[in-house]
Amino acid sequence: MASIAVESFKLATNECNIYGGFFVFSIGIIGSILNIIIFSSLKTFREASTAFYMTVASAVNIFQLVFGLLTRILINGYNIDPTKTLSSMCKAPQFI
User: Fold this and answer.
1) Higher pLDDT among residues 17 and 31, named by residue
2) Fewer CB within a 10 Å sphere, N or C end of the chain?
3) Can you tell me where the transmembrane regions are (predicted)?
4) d(CA 87, CA 96)
5) In 42-81, which ranges are continuous DSSP H helix?
6) Other C-beta atoms within 10 Å of 58: how many?
7) CA-CA distance, 63 to 57, in Å (whole number)?
8) What's the rounded Cα separation, in Å, for the pair 93 and 89?
């Protein structure tokens, strides 16, 4: 009985990792792209020095989502480990 509960908990955790991860990934990418567009296109934001830092932070967020969260989704959800096949994916998490 306990092993059935453990297996169902593992399955639920795996499903939350896949679907929740893709939700956070897609919303994060969309939000970061919109931030980059807004902070680099509007004249009022281009004149402020903080807009540059916000634009760079949004670009770094995209990098973190792709190399951090996407690899986690692939490894935990689909048992695909891109860090073993792509050298850039292996080295990138050390810099995040």
Assistant:
1) 31
2) N
3) 18-39, 51-75
4) 15
5) 43-47, 49-64, 70-78
6) 21
7) 10
8) 7
Tokens of residue 63, six digits: 């990098």
Residue among 78, 40, 81, 41 at smallest CA distance from 59: 40
- For residue 68, give every residue at least 6 positions away whose Cβ sits within 8 Å of its Cβ, in sequence order, or none: 93, 96
The domains of the chain are located at 2-94
When pLDDT is cut at 50, 70 and 90, the band that residue 27 belongs to is very high
Which letter does DSSP use for residue 69 in this model? I
The whole-model pTM stands at 0.80
Instruction: Answer for the pair 54, 60: CB distance below 8 angstroms, yes or no.
Output: no
